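Regression test attached.
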Amino acid sequence: MLHFANGQDVQATMDIPTPHSPLPTPLLRFWVCSKVFDERDWAWMARAVRLARRGFPAPNPHVGAVIVKEGVLLGEGYHPYAGAPHAEVFALQQAGERAYSATLYVTLEPCCHFGRTPPCTKAVISAGIRRVVVGTQDPNPKVAGKGIQQLREAGIQVDLLDPQHPLVSALEALNRPFLFRYRTGRPLITLKSALSLDGKMACATGDSKWITGERARRHAHRLRAEHGCVLVGVGTVLHDDPQLTARLRGVKNQPLRVVLDTHLRTPLSAQLLDTRSAPTLIVCAESALSRAEPYRQRGAEVVGVPVRNGCVDLQAVITLLCQRKVIGVLVEGGSQVHTAFLEARLADRVALFYAPLLIGGRDAPTLYEGQGAATISQAYRITDVRQRKFGSDWLIEGDIVYPDNQVGAED
Ligand SMILES: NC(=O)c1ccc[n+]([C@@H]2O[C@H](COP(=O)([O-])OP(=O)(O)OC[C@H]3O[C@@H](n4cnc5c(N)ncnc54)[C@H](OP(=O)(O)O)[C@@H]3O)[C@@H](O)[C@H]2O)c1
């Protein structure tokens, strides 16, 4: 039972805040009984993780925080969007002077540097917090253990969850693009598509609206916000004229919209050139830059990069996005762009929505065209596969493993 300062008592629920995998109860018991954390610690941290799921903070991480003293909840918060105060600040504000000598449960190591907001370690120390329980370390080199060190140097007891703790897996899934960006130095690249059961992305005529239903499309908006960047080829702009925004309540920072458009064929009337709603970056050949002015006048950024095989070079595009501190790229097609990312082995994950439809047609595009694998052992495998249902559609997600890295591909 969790006790709230307002006198309300709430049964601590043990659900783990990952959208995908409920944890088996024996596993939870093992962790509750065997580590330095008791059952209450576990429940308060689980609450902080649930809070962390709220908000759309890309390119920042999801963070939740809870302040507790003698079993009573004094304050809580989460990081709602980049530029807003951090979770710890909301929780400390709510707790006020009662935070003195309390325990702070926070899902990510508190920051110790001046960014858009002042360091959280300073606020935690001046509030007189006695103990801090940290979910995961922040891989951002500006923090990376230094936040924990500062707290310990100030005499605060800091307990870090064991990396094998089930809550840590939940946090890893929640902050996947953020953690990937800081661990690898480049954004996580996810190929997202809406497909029929026979693997078609559109009819042979080019019509593709709508393959999936309302609920699947709403989740796709969440994926856009989580990645912080959406990328298409000019073919999709010409066929579909998409907005590529994340139209969900609570999204303050719209994703960066990127169009790969070697020869600047994007129509000036395209919806994504309405840059009042979201920023747009058009990547073209350096030779096309002389025609960039009308796009710039509409507020879009136009950048020229080298050309490879007649199209803008994907590696150069990724370098560009790294420079802009993008944590994740949701590639929304079409077929040519998906194929290019797969053939260049630059895609890390798939998020494929399957609708109960058969479209058919030899000329109807599929996700992955080109030459294809010569043998099944050379096919790209998807690992850590997860599935979720949205209305009558299924989302299949997983990591792409390229043949050279595959173990036991002949199974
Ligand atoms: N079901 C879905 O989820 C979904 C999603 C999106 C689109 N679609 C459908 O897909 C169809 C459009 O497919 P598409 O293949 O033409 O669109 P696309 O992949 O979005 O655009 C292809 C174009 O992108 C440009 N491009 C620039 N750099 C590239 C690179 N490195 N690699 C590949 N392409 C690059 C090329 O034009 P330049 O050479 O002029 O630069 C190329 O022709 C439409 O029917 C649309 O409705 C379906």
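Expected vs. actual: identical. Residues 1-34 have pLDDT under 50 and may be disordered.
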